[in-house]
Amino acid sequence: MSSAGPPVVRAGGVLPVRVRKGGLQVALVHRPRYDDWSWPKGKLERGEDYPVAAVRETWEETGLQVRLGAPLPVSRYRLAGGSDKVVHYWVGEVVGGRGSLEHEVDEVRWLSPTLAGRRLSYDRDREQLAAVVDLHEAGRLPTWTFLVVRHALAVPRGDWSGPDPLRPLTGPGRRRSAHRLADLLTAYRPERLLSSPSVRCTDTLAPFARSAKLDVTTKKGLSEEGFESDPGTLRKHLGRVLEKGVSTALCTHGPLLPDLVGVLLERTAPGMERSEVRVLRRLTQVTMDKGEVLACTMTGSGAGARVLSATRYRPR
């Protein structure tokens, strides 16, 4: 007898937020097919990561372009057909779009949290609303994201006769960089790109850099050679990232990552999920996978910079 449970429908969603005259507002969508009010969300496409689906579905349903902020409580519930549905949600900062409606939505409405709570059709959606209100009242709704990227799969050292910094990505490495990694970075929309000068790192960020029209700034201290000659330079580069406090993607090598994550572990915010603290602690002992992204939601800057959450996106 099979022990498999019911099929799981995976989806991503966003709570678009804005502040008007000091008051918090959130955007709900109305679906005429169900005559309900809920958050923009939709099912993952084949091979898609949750953040990518959340941003794509928000665009398709509302015409709004969003930058993902803090993750919100995951929603799990049973569908009428017997399947389980799991929806991962994020705060969404609106960065563009005209709000033209598509697909299943006929109205988007910005409301105060109080009015939104009354308008929502499902009790389960109020959990994400309560989390947004808590973040706002704690002054933690404005966040930035630090995306730590290990370069994608490169040609093995034994198969390469040139200088190691010139060792290129493999075909699968280039494809991951051009699609899955670029899409994931687009969901978080980093404003700065930092990298080791090694070709395998700069080429990992290159597809996103081209689409976002951003330059990749290289730092010798983020290379394996630079780290070996002066390990302390890595902490200096990280200090500058934290001082600026703007969304940043940094691509580097496996040997640097335990030290890098160690700095982030020192900055975890009180109340951070224990499972996510364990993720960081684990990554100080074993390095990230090639082509993996560690997305850290940050609050504050400089000495006050803190990690609110940390999520791994591993190659599949």
Automatic annotation (TrEMBL):
Any one Gene Ontology MF annotation carried by this entry is: hydrolase activity
Matches recorded under InterPro entries: His_Pase_superF_clade-1, His_PPase_superfam, NUDIX_hydrolase-like_dom_sf, NUDIX_hydrolase_CS, NUDIX_hydrolase_dom
Q: Which SMART domains does the UniProt entry name for this protein?
A: PGAM (SM00855)
Give the classification, highest ranks: Bacteria, Bacillati, Actinomycetota, Actinomycetes, Micrococcales
Any single Pfam family the record assigns to this protein: His_Phos_1
Where is the signal peptide, in residue numbers?
A: none
Q: Where is the Nudix hydrolase domain?
A: 7-133
Provide the protein name.
Nudix hydrolase domain-containing protein
Q: Which UniProt keywords apply?
A: Hydrolase
Name the Gene3D superfamilies on file: Nucleoside Triphosphate Pyrophosphohydrolase, Phosphoglycerate mutase-like
SUPFAM superfamilies (alphabetical): Nudix, Phosphoglycerate mutase-like
